[in-house]
Design a protein that fits this description.
Structural class: alpha+beta
GO molecular function: DNA-binding transcription factor activity, RNA polymerase II-specific; RNA polymerase II cis-regulatory region sequence-specific DNA binding; zinc ion binding
Main location: nucleus
Subcellular location: Nucleus
CATH architecture of one domain: 2-Layer Sandwich
Helix content: 25-40%
Number of strands: 6
Distance between the termini: 21 Å
Largest sheet: 2 strands, antiparallel
Number of helices: 4
CATH class of one domain: Alpha Beta
Family: Belongs to the krueppel C2H2-type zinc-finger protein family.
Order of helices and strands: HEEHEEHEEH
Strand content: 5-15%
Radius of gyration: 19 Å
InterPro entries: Znf_C2H2_sf, Znf_C2H2_type
CATH superfamily of one domain: Classic Zinc Finger
CATH topology of one domain: Double Stranded RNA Binding Domain
Length: about 130
């Protein structure tokens, strides 16, 4: 995204995302007055007020407000880990966990001229 530098794997995702930067936010939440450029964003947002969680895991019964969250959750039961580090081949069930790991791996310690050490915990600077 030229506006915020966020990356997407598909152009249609970029186009949808760019609407979040648009001044034309025609869909307003009657509850909190937050506005959105697409109706589906408003519908999804309104679930935060109603607590409606229509997507239930058939394995354990846990419910989610978004189908994508259910899909990610189900990987706990299946063991699927589709996000893999190209360097070490470690796999992750969620992209966010992979990104945290990537930040962890790419952090460099400039201590005594040593570079490339793996940094943990509070040493990690983002």
């Amino acid at each position: 995204c030229p506006e915020c530098k966020k990356s997407f794997s598909h152009n249609c995702q970029l186009v949808t995302h760019q609407g979040t930067h648009s001044q034309d936010k025609l869909y307003e939440c009657p509850e909190c007055k937050k506005s959105f450029s697409h109706n589906y964003q408003l519908v999804t947002h309104q679930r935060t007020h109603t607590g409606l969680k229509t997507y239930e895991c058939p394995e354990c019964g846990k419910c989610f407000s978004k189908n994508s969250n259910l899909v990610t959750h189900q990987r706990i039961h299946t063991g699927e880990k589709p996000h893999q580090c190209p360097e070490c081949r470690k796999s992750f069930c969620q992209p966010s966990r992979f990104l945290s790991f990537a930040l962890h791996l790419s952090a460099v310690v400039s201590n005594g001229g040593r570079r490339g050490e793996i940094v943990t915990g509070s040493e990690l600077e983002v």
